[in-house]
Amino acid sequence: MDPMRAPDFWQTGLGPWPHILAPLGCLYGAIGRAERSFTRTQASGVPVICIGNLTAGGTGKTPVALNICNRLLSLGIDVHFLSRGYGGDLPGPIMVDPEHHTVEDVGDEPLLLARSAPAWVSRNRIQGAHAARGAGAQALILDDGFQDPHIAKDLSLIVIDGASGFGNGRLIPAGPLRETVPHGLKRADGVIIMGEDRLGMAAKLKNAFEGLPIINAHLRPVLTPSPYKGKKIMGFAGIGRPEKFRETLLEIGAKLESFYGFPDHHPYVGREIAILLEKAKELDAIALTTAKDHVRITDADQREQIDVLDVEVVFENEAVLNALLAPILASLAAPEMPDQDGSDRD
Question: Is the pLDDT of residue 127 over 70?
Answer without folding.
Answer: yes
